[in-house]
Every structure is written in structure tokens, then in C-alpha cells.
Design a protein that fits this description.
It is a single chain. By secondary structure, the chain is mostly helical. The chain is 59% helix and 8% strand. The chain is built from 4 helices and 2 strands; from the N terminus they run E-H-E-H-H-H. The protein has helices at residues 13-21, 30-40, 47-61, 65-73, and strands at 3-5, 24-26. The longest helix is centred in the last third of the chain and has 15 residues, at 47-61. It is elongated, with a radius of gyration of 15 Å.
Amino acid sequence: MPIFFGPNYKKFREAVDMVKSGAAFPINNKQELFPLLNEMFDESQNTLSKTSSVAKAFVREHCGATDIVMKEIFK
């Protein structure tokens, strides 16, 4: 599923990367949220399905990052 979060995300590389990929959407206020949700649930545009696929691919590409970091820490 696509992810929605507030505007203070730029300190987090994963969040920035997800926004760039189209898997996440920063929201500043409800005036921005409602039109985006309407677009997501407009079945004629298939937006929810498309963004869900992008989010799923993003998670799969980055799966295992914690294990890699932990192995480096405990070498």
C-alpha cells in the first residue's frame, strides 16, 4: 500500500527515496490529503494498484537492510 506522512520526512533517507519512487506521499494538510485519497480510490485511474505495486517493489528491494547493518556492527 502507498504510504502517507507529514512534511517532516527529509531527514530519513528511506522516506525521501519512497517519495521519489512514488510509493509515499508527504501531506501538509487535509486540503492535500483528500484529493489524493479520492484519486487513490478512483478505480477508473487504477492509481491505488499502481502505487501499491511501486511500494511493494520498494520494500522488496530494501528487504534485509537491518541484517546487513547488524552483521557489520558485530563483525
